[in-house]
Each structure stands twice: as C-alpha cells, then as structure tokens.
Amino acid sequence: MTTAAPSSRVLAHPARDEIRLEGVLHALSDPLRLLVVRELARDDAGLSCSHFDLPVTKSTCTHHFRVLREAGVIQQGYRGTAKLNALRRADLDALFPGLLDSVLAAAALQADRSAHDG
Amino acid sequence: MTTAAPSSRVLAHPARDEIRLEGVLHALSDPLRLLVVRELARDDAGLSCSHFDLPVTKSTCTHHFRVLREAGVIQQGYRGTAKLNALRRADLDALFPGLLDSVLAAAALQADRSAHDG
C-alpha cells in the first residue's frame, strides 16, 4: 500500500455556522496571513503552499495556514501531493456580508500608502 | 496643588497615520472588545469605563481598553476623574472606508444568530 490512510489526509474545517467573527478577525490580524488572503482573493482556482514566497520557515508558514483554515477563512485540500488553498468567500460573504471585501480594500489602501511613503 | 501632573493624565494614542489595519483587526478580534466597540458605536458622546458592566476584573477591563486605544480604535481621555472612551470613527473611516461599519454589521448579525440559536 502506498496510499496514505484517508484520515491523515483530511484536514479539519469548521462548518459555516461554526465560523466566528472574532476568529476571522484574529486570523486576518497578522501581516503575513493578510498577505496570503489578498493573494488568494486574486486567484479563484486555489494556490499551493509553495506558490507563496514567504519570508518565514516552512513550519511557521504551515502554522499561519492552519490558523486561517481553523478560523474558516480558507479551505485547504490535497490535489495529488499538493496542498491547495482557497478563500471561503461564499461562506464569509454569506455570514458577514461585505466584511471580506472591506478588509481586502483596507489592506490594499494600506499597502498603497506604505509604497508611497517608502 | 490638587491637580495631577499632566504627564500622568495624558494617555498615548497613535496618530492617524500610525494606525495599522492588522492592529485594528487584532483589537476587534476579542469578544469583549468587540462588545465594547459596539456599545461605543451607539453613543457618540463617549462612555466612561464604569458604564460597561463587563464580566471581568477591573485590571482585565483596563487591559482591553488599552489594547483598543493603542490600536487606534478608541480615544480615551479624562473628564474630571472619569475616563471617557469614544470610537475614533473619523480616523478609521478615513483610513479604511467601510471597514468599521462592516465589522459592526457582522457583529450584529452574529449576535442575532446566537440569540436565535439560544
């Protein structure tokens, strides 16, 4: 047998009605996680972890993705050996209309201001 | 002299351009702080700490208000011996248009859902 047991490949996600606003805001309150979410918002197909060229160790990166997944912000799943990440936009928009868009817009504005200041 | 030295009565606040989105989201990611912010949003005049009947010790309460102040979410100042708190709505709306309103709306929706579930 070369296939891993399903249990080792299934990642726990909160159901839509388990997603809490506080958890979502906490997940978005880290600069690196906010960067990841902005990137995912631009790509509906889902992105593999290796797509993100983040200035942290692999284990720190794994931690940040787990925080996003456990808060209900992203969906993580395997396609072959690659772990793909996608925003749970439908769930977030249904629960908290306009929230994700306003955070993304705020992050874009802040990034623009930083670019001009730099 | 019965008046305290100004330095002991002046509380540090970030200037508008020092307010960071990540800090604001972090400040709002706690259930108790979110409750305080919802209350402040309903009262433009500012509320004293004692207005909030929070299920925590005074020092925990002080901590939460400090997190909100240092993130730039609230303005704290003395009126006589009372410490008054007010939302920095103008600053937040200027920096991150729509963000505060969408968080407040999301918090209201979540509270409604919790009330119906209970």
UniProtKB/TrEMBL annotation, chains A, B:
HTH arsR-type domain mapped to chain residues: 13-107
SUPFAM superfamilies on file: Winged helix' DNA-binding domain
Family annotation (PROSITE patterns): HTH_ARSR_2
InterPro entries from the UniProt entry: ArsR-like_HTH, HTH_ArsR_DNA-bd_dom, WH-like_DNA-bd_sf, WH_DNA-bd_sf
Keywords (A to Z) from UniProt: DNA-binding
GO molecular function terms listed in the Swiss-Prot or TrEMBL record: DNA binding; DNA-binding transcription factor activity
Protein name: DNA-binding transcriptional ArsR family regulator
